[in-house]
Every structure is written in structure tokens, then in C-alpha cells.
Amino acid sequence: MSRRLRVLIASLAVALCAVLAIRPADATTIQRVVSPGGIEAWLVHEPSLPLVAMNFAFVGGASEDPADKPGVGYMVASLLDEGAGELDSKAFQRRLEDTATEMRFSATQDYFYGSIRMLSEHRDQAFDLLRLALQHPRFDDEAVARIRGQILSGLRRESTDPGSIATRTWWRDAFPNHPYGRPVNGSLTSVPTIGLADLKDYTGRVLARRHLKVAAVGDIDAATLGTVLDRVFGALPADGKLAAIPDRTPQGGGKRVVVSLDVPQSVVRMGGVGVQRNDPGFISAYIVNHILGGGSFTSRLYQEVREKRGLVYGVSSYLLTMRHAALFMVTTQAGNDHAGDAVQLIDAQVRRMADEGPSEAELSKAKAYLKGAYVLNLDTSSKIASVLLQNQLDNLGIDYIERRRAMIDAVTVDDARRAAKRLAPGGLLTTVVGRPKGMTVGMTTEAPRP
Amino acid sequence: MIPPFRRSARARPGLAMGLAAILAVALTTFSDVTQAAPKPDVAHFTLSNGLEVVVVPDRRAPVVTHMVWYKVGAADETPGKSGLAHFLEHLMFKGTAKNPAPVFSQTVALVGGQENAFTTQDYTGYYQRVSREHLKTLMEFESDRMTGLVLNEQAVVPELKVVLEEYNQRVANNPRARLSEQVDAALYLNHPYGRPVIGWRHEIEKLTREDALAFYRRFYTPNNAVLVVAGDVTADEVRKLAEETYGKVAKVAEIGPRHRPQEPPPAAERHVTLADARVQQPSLHREYLVPSATTAKPGESEALEVLGFILGRSSTGRLHNALVMERGLAVSAGGWYRGTALDATQFGVYASPKPEVSLPQLEAALDSVIADVVSKGVTADEVERAKSRLIAEAIYAQDNQATMARWYGMALTTGSTVERVLSWPDRIRAVTTEAVNQAARTWLDKKRSVTGYLVAPTQKEDKRT
Fold this sequence. Notes:
heterodimer; A: alpha+beta; Cytochrome Bc1 Complex, Chain A, domain 1; 2 domains; six-stranded mixed β-sheet; 16 helices; B: alpha+beta; seven-stranded mixed β-sheet; 17 helices; 12 strands; disordered N terminus
């Protein structure tokens, strides 16, 4: 069995394993592969299981939708595996099934993502299906109509779902007149107007080599991957035509928006200005967020809002670093009777963190967690591919995994205190959907129609 | 592809939602390695106090998944105390005399670990994922709370509120989950699977510290548990560590056989309609009462797996082909078989209509697809395709130590064995077309089923005659 993946990961584990000492020559196991045609990918060659995972992304997700037609990128992502080349939808799906290939596409605000997972014995056929999907999608009338129907069905469901309404409303209010303010999956009015020309225009502009990043993991060597990269991506246009998206600060800090909906539990989305990924203070802010609400059972928000008072089932905060905005977000859900109390507590905890920063003890515990936990993202092929892709999109460098521990260790309590003041200094825009008791004061609005 | 309607998992993780989705998949595609892949070198042994141990080595990354599974779930609750198994799962994080809360969670966090827990009808599980050198520490903590839980009112009262918020989040705020509860309740006339894992709200509200402790003392004992360790370990290491930690926990209760009240032969097809003002997209969802991997005759559960795939696969199955692609009546349609259960389980089908199509119209079309399978059977080609795709799942599963750990844990807490997990690909390979057709004829009988409609209150066209 190959030990290379193990060694890669061992190099970041808390205690170095004996294996590392035996096989130091293999320590640099993320390979930068450049295909004969000039396409770059990061690779971890790990042949002990007969499978390959590949993740990739093009810059330009939903932000590339026409302003009056949100949902184009999302619809394209839903249609690429619905017929390509000579294969109609049914034939394409059957080919995927016969080769046990898993192929997924998705759009976020910033990126158009793809991933594929295949068994070694079907590697050539699987990559060929991916080539067809990216280079020769058919967009047959039948498939477009069917997928449009599915998207509209989803939008109808979302139109009375408190979580969807909260998310949609928050983004609309935080990013007026910006692509981030528009819904990724479109709306009940935009989706019916999306036509074949919109889909083709989108693929022509976005699916281009210049803004492509690729990561592969598993039973494939560098030379084979080079050939695959050219075959799958080589015929795409070299350069796309991306819109110029302006950087933007989220709006509405300190405002509360209540959307009335007859549900027993209110859904809460809060967000404000965060710290950008390439900012020198990012790691400090990341640690501070972990202490405040980063998802472990020991965070301040979890302890104060859930453990001590039982107001919610889940509460967490996170930093969201987008290409054109840096955000600090908090989400929770609380029964209508005490949603107001939960929001007040969260606000108070965020302010307290900004005023006082974390303690030395909290800082050192958070560092220990964040150093130790990274390896848990690296125990399956798909997870490794996902991390390697994200590190490329974030411009972190191929040696980031090795440097990360030292970056965390370098954060001082003063760094953390400064970073704490940068989490939503203008306050949080708070969107509550439900019938929260005592929270009708402030701005009440209609939900945006999905 | 748009993901189709996904049935919510029966699993109810107490502290986060992540595992539920994974379990839902695992429960319907329970499988293992194929002959093409190296078989995992699984070890299985029992300590002198009765604790079963399974070790699934995966040496690629220096990470371990450490899970303790108790052979107790919501279906083992006393009537009137629904939700108790799940409530106790939450309370298991409240500390012991030796390790008062939140020492355990703080320790997990300090070593960069992840932790959580989940409750289903048949089992309750607790797990952590950490880098390998911390395994023993976790085993010390987890074995301590096997019988050492201490509960005081200050911890119990807010936790009951948390569970009610979880109920709001999972059920009250979600019309489809509300329908699913009603369908299950109608399907099981006598067996406790008809009660929701999270409990009925009026009963959850009355659960007490004493209820939880009584349940704990009755079921949490090493001779009613399974330890599963997957990842960068050897069987010898785990055996030594397990003897040093769990091996010292004394048996505190004798555990009898798990006999729940069984279902009478189903006699009448049932319909339920849930009207909810939030419904903008109606849907229908039917469950048939069928044998599980544990209750079925040899080969029968495997045939139902293949049938579930042929009928239900989201983008290529018969229901999708007929209702979405050919007849254009539905925006989505599919089905599933949940094989992993101690007692009689469910075979489900679902569809969501296009706006101009009524639910009775869609149900009639769905009936005709099923009638066609029952009367004419499936093709040998369909069976071969389904089998090879099901077996391929096993190779993918080997890429994920946490998935492997779950498979063995689920098997051993629902009456199956390590040997049966290992032989799963062979048993699927042995399924014949005739066995699939026999399964369809025997089990897809409407008398065995409940059909649920999810509608908005004003939708007149969905009223039944």
C-alpha cells in the first residue's frame, strides 16, 4: 500500500509519525502538474484504492448571470449532465450509471464548480463524459424544460421556507445593486425567461481555461493526469469574458429586518463586515471567530445561547471570504417566544468579543484545535481534492498546508484583540423570519419573491 | 441534475445535522467491498464484560474514527415516553463524576477533534474523529460515560428546551417532515417504529431527569454496546487500548432479547393527507411495509435492494423515466429501500407533480408503473446494471473511514453481523431477475402501504372522492 498520502498528512499532524522519518523523500506529495497544453492541476497520487476524485472550478458563478436574469449559471450547472455530444439526457445518465461515475456541477456566487469521482477501471470513459459535458453540452429542449420545471418547483418550496426566505432577504439587503444581492438559483420570475441563448452565452464566457483551477487525488499519475487535462479542458476557449464585479462592503449594519411568516420557530441570519482571506489579519480573525462561534461545542455562543439557557438547538458563526466581499456571519433558529432574546445575546457576545478580545487561555485552546482539526479534512480522496482546489482559489500556495501551523502559532493575543474589533464593527444586519415575540420594532419588510 | 426530493433521515443526530444526511444514504445503500478492491482487514472480538469491538484499518491518513454504538433506540422506549432515547443522547454530554462537563468536549476540542451523537429507532451512537495519537484519551472518556453519567436539574432543564428547539427545527418548521411522521404513524399499527424518533411533542415536554437515568441504567452497559474504531490503527493496538479502558467497565445490567410488538399482516391500504398553509409544491410519498435485512428470508432483502434501485434511482429509475421523462407529469420521482432495521422496514416511493397535475392523477400514474413491474417484471439487463452500480458503491465507501465505521456499527446494532457486511457484494451479485420479480409481486401490494399527500389547505383538486 502506498504511504504517500499518509506521509503528506503526517507532516501536519500534531505528532510526527515514525513513518515520516522512514520516508522523508516523499514528504512533498502535492505535485504541481502542468499538462502538455499548459493546464495546471495539483495532484496527490494515492493508488491504494482503485478510484480517482477530481474537483475543479471556473471563476464566475452566479455573479456572471445577466442582472435581469438571475439563475442562469445555476441552470447551466443543472444541465451539463443532461445530454452532451451524441448522447441525449437519458443516454448520458445511463453512461454515468454504467460506469459508476459520479459527476456534479454547482454554482455559487463566485465560482462554477465541478467534481467527478470514478473507478479506475472506467477512468477513460468517465473523463470522456466530463469532456463532453464541458465542451459539448446539448441543452436539448426537453432537458431545459424539465430542469426549468424542477428549479421552479424548488423555488416554490423555498417561497414559504423560513430558512430560504431569511437567506434571500439577508443577501438582498446586504448587497443592493450588486450581483451578490441576487439569488443564485434565480426567482419565479427570472427562471421562466432564461433561454437557450442565455445558457450558451454563459458557458461561452465562463467555461474558459484562464480562470480554471483543478485538483485531483487518487489512482492517477502525473503523466496520465496531464493527458486527461488536455483532453477534458484543452478545447475550451483560452479566455472567457467575465464581467467586472466591484468589491463591496455589506450594507445594513445594525439594522433588524423582520419578515413575518407563520412558523413556530424563527430563523435568524446575521452578518456584517469580516476580514478578507488575503488580509494579514485573516488567521487572527479566523481564530477569534472560532472562539466566538466557530462550530465546536465549546464556543462562547454555543455555551451562552444553547448550553446555559436552552434558547436554540444550533448557533454558529463563520467568516465568509468572497472574491468581492469579506463577511462575518451568524446563524441560528429559535422559538418565536425567545428569538428576540437569542438575537440580543448574540449581539452582546459579538460586542463583548470586540471590546475585550479573547483570553490567553481561549487563544491557546483555539490554536490547538485549529492545528489539530485540519487533518480531519484530509482523510478521503474527495475531501483532499476539495481542500487542494480551495487553496488554489484562495491563492494560498502549494506549500500552504505545511506553513499553516506556523501561521496559527504566530498569532498573539494582541493580534487576536485587534482582529476581534474587525468583526462587524458597524454592527450586524439581522434578518429574522417567523413571528418573533417583541421584535416587530424596527424595519419590517416583505420577503423578496423567489 | 437537480437533487430530487430527499426523504429525511430516520437518524436524529442530537447535536448537529451533518450525519443525518450521510446516514440516510448509508441506510439505503448498505454495502461493502467488491472483488475489484482490496477487502478491508476487519477484526471483530468481544471483551470479557461483553463489549463487542470492530476494527476497520485504513492506514492512508493518521486519523481515527472512534464510535460507541448502543443497541437501544427510540423503538425500545416505554409507551408514553417517546423521545426518551434521543433526550438521553443529549444528556450524555452533561458529564460524569470523574469528568464533569464540559471536560470531555473541551478535551476533544483541544486535540482538534470532532464529536457528535445520533439516535435512531434501533441504535444510539456517539463518536469522535481525531488524529490517531489521541485515541486512548477518547476511549478513557467514552468508557467513563458508559456507566458514569451524572445528571443534575440545572443541566437537564435547559437541555429539554434545546430538544424542543430541535423538534421545531426538524419537524414543526418543515411540512414534509410533518407528513413523514404521519405516514410512519399510519404504516405501523402495532410496532413502535410508528413513533417519531424525536418523540411526540406532548410527551417530550414531560420527560424528566429520572426518566433519562432509568433508561440509561437499563440499556447503557458494555454488554449492550459495540465499539467501532476505523482508521490508522491495528486490531492489536485497539484490543490493548480497549482492554485498558472499556475492559474495566463493569456490566451493570443484563440485556434480554429485543422483542418489540410486531405488525399484524396488513389488511387495508391507507391514505393520509396533511394540509399545511406553507405548501407551495404538493407531493406524494408512499411507504410499503417490507422485510428488513434482519427479518427477511435469505436473498429477499438483497432482491429488495435491487428492486429499489431499478424503480427508484433518481435519474435513471423506472419512476423517473415514466413520470418525469416520458409522461411529463412530475418534476421529480423516485424510491428507496431501507434495509437496515431490526424489525419490518419500509420500501418508499415519492413524486412531486407539475403545477397542472393533481395528486390523484400522479398517484394513478405511479400505480401503473408499479403494476407494470409487478405484472411484467423487470429485465435481466436492468438487474445487471443495478447490481454492478450497487457493488461499486462499496469501493467508494472504502475511501471514507467514517462511512466504514458506520456500516459496521449499524449492522451490529440491528441484528446483522460482520460476516454479512463483508459478504454484501457477493449476496448482491447472486440476486436473480426472478428474485427481484418475486419481491415486487410479494411486497408491492397496496394493502401493505400508506400513501401520504402533502397539500395546501385550499387545493380542492387534491380532495379524494
